[in-house]
Structure formats: C-alpha cells, structure tokens
Amino acid sequence: MSFCEAKSVRTHDLLEIDAKRFGSCQVSPPEWVVAGLQRAPFVVVRRDLATEQMIPVGVRGVQRNQRWAAMCSLKLVKSILAPPQLLKRRVPKSREDATSAFRALRIMKERWRDLDHSWGPGGSVGFELAVGGNIVKTESDLDIVVYAAERITRDMAKSLHAQTLNLPAAVDVRVETPLCGFSLEEFAWRSTGKILLRTPSGMTLGTDPWSDDVR
Fold this sequence. Notes:
The structure is a single chain. The protein is of the alpha+beta class. The protein has 8 helices and 11 strands. The strands form 3 sheets. The chain has a 5-stranded antiparallel sheet with strand order 4-3-2-1-5, sandwiched between helices. A 4-stranded mixed sheet has the order 6-7-8-9. The protein is globular and about 50 Å long. The model has no long low-confidence stretch (mean pLDDT 92).
C-alpha cells in the first residue's frame, strides 16, 4: 500500500511494516525490539511531529516497561489498521472469558452501537486484535479512542463517560480532535478551568480542544 504523505495516518493507528528494513534504519535498537518485530511486525503511531515521509512510531514489548520510540519511513508501511477497524475483529470466547478488558469491550460495543462518532480500541486490546497472540493481561484496562472532528458538548461527554462505568475492567477514553487528544473524563467533569491537551508539539493546558489556538 502506498500513501501520499505521513500525515495521512493518525495517532493510535497500527502500522504493519517491513520489520527487517525498519530495523536496519535504527541505531542500536534494544534486543527485545528486534525480536518483537520479528514475531509481529506492527508499530503504533505515536503523538509527535511527522514529516511528509517520516512517521513517529512506538514499538510495544511484552513487558509494560518495554516501549521504544522511533521514526518510520512511509516507504516501509505495508498496511494501516485504525482502531475503528479493530471493532470488526472477532474475539475468541477463551480470551473474553480470561480477560476483563475484552468483556468490557463487548459491553461497550452494545452501549455505543449507535454512537455517531467513530471509535475503537487502542492499547493492548487493540494491539492483540491486530496481531493476535495473548497480549492483554488479566489486569489490563480497556483503552478506547473516540474521533471527534466536530465539537462535542460537556453534557454529551458526561453521557459518554457514564456509559464507561460499572464494567468488568476500567475504561480510559481518549478523544481525538484534528488538533489534539484529551481525556473524556477530564473534559466531562472539569466544567471550568483548563484541561490537559496532548498535541504533536507536546502537552499543554487549554479550554477548547477544537480551537486553532491549540496549534
């Protein structure tokens, strides 16, 4: 697959890459990075400044502390899997029985069945749905990404957040606007004052995640 520019991918997207060529482009990557990409040649797009041909990515290891940041050439990307696409992936019953995060995802699919905004799983749940294997731990949370190109109200945010409660696993929802990402819970319940906004240039405090002032 070819892409016109690196900015056509979004934070949280999973990229299938040419692992061998990717590894040869890196300076002294950790051994676990090389081994991990040989097993599953996928990286996740991280929030950082991209160029027309280079994408900021992260490599996930087996352990929670195994996270490695790098840049990946657009030429090495074979395919893109966005979180909303992963909702269509089948979860084996054995994995749903063994992990509370997958049980929580099943319930969220029902609760947000009619949600107008595109959404899908991120984190370890999204990664397992993309690459297979037993990546999600029994204690794992469910990370969700919601795309909100248009403004959502505080009341809508409160309603959405309420639907993430009382589930088998804790649910952390990241809302993504064209300019930044932020916590659904923080936006919903902090009615006054600034919230933490995650932008490609770094973290900042702001009141309007859809304002051009975020840039």
